[in-house]
Amino acid sequence: MDAGDLERAYRTEATRVRAILARRLGDVGLAEELVQDAFVEALEHWAADGVPANPGGWLTTTAWRKALDRQRRVRTGREKLALLAVTQDRAGLTAGHYADPQAEADDLLSLVFACCHPALPADSQVALTLRAVCGLTTAEIAAAFLVSEQTMRQRLSRARRTLQDAGVAIRIPDPDELGERLAAALAVVYLVFNEGYLASAGHTPARRDLAAQAISLARLLHRLMPGEAEVLGLLALLLLHESRAVARFDGWGRLIRLADQDRARWDHQLAAEATALLDRAIGLRHPGPYQVQAAIAALHAATTDYRQTDWQQIRLLYDRLLVMTPSPVVRLNRAVATRYAAGPAAALAEVEPLTADLDGYRLFHAVRAELLTALGRTAEARAANERALALAANPAERELIARRLDA
Q1: Which homologous superfamily is 327-407 in?
Q2: N or C: which end of the chain has fewer CB within 10 A?
Q3: Rounded Cα distance, 253 and 395, in Å
């Protein structure tokens, strides 16, 4: 076994094992600890015996055994030990359970909804899901939230304690509870996809495993709630972005801007599936921000030439999005459409008032640099690019900005 074997196992198996344990034990924090302990044991055993045929089943069994061992060491845990033993027998916590797709889906959804419980503040819901469901490190989550690692460690600890103190059951909510829990779950799935689409930290520009996991979660939510327009909208949005993924980087791992991508390489079948989902969502007549964002992405997918994109329609859609979710970032994106609909001067006039809100946002300075370049204000453009480079953490983004500076 080499180090890559264990890393691959963590990427592909850890989430499912965590979900199984969390649902059976009713404790997200304990499930995380047990999975870590199981991987420590795997490091020792797999080095001697080789990687087992079913790594996930091995890890599940090992982690469950450690859960039972912990209870045996606690006198007051004898009743719970008996309950866990019965749960193991009834649930079949073995490689067989691990291979049951429906059981796996239920476990995963249960963990997602637990992490998105209303007892937690919104930022803690997202952070805990990224940690417990997606397996991001505390440092990676801290980078995504622009806080220190110590601050994020404390936030995660408080979130786990809150769930435990509130006695939150790790299960799929009843139908009358789903509505209030859905918005948080969708926001989490969206953020997970974004982290996979363009990583906020680390040496890898994109985390394809996270993007695939987010799409899988969105499909599971759609299967659970097929008549929810925003679930359809989010799934359509993710699939439209995913349809362009293969063309986003060149053979050297360098980021390719949308305007320069080879559209023949896009997955048009996936885009067609997304468009059909969006049509169904619109037909339900319950508009929402994910549907609007999907409609914007669909307009990009519908044209074979970036210059022929319907920028006027995209600008109108951003106006609609601003009514639903007003934010400086939406205004920044609207300004990009304004550049092509009304020219760079009009776009810059929309961007400049956002300075106070977005001065710490790398894409604000990158967009501003492009507009200044288009207007021939080279020195100002260079300063804006330098600011964007200082704020960028993703290696592919940094390389792209560095190329602009060289040019």
Answers
A1: Tetratricopeptide repeat domain (1.25.40.10)
A2: C
A3: 9
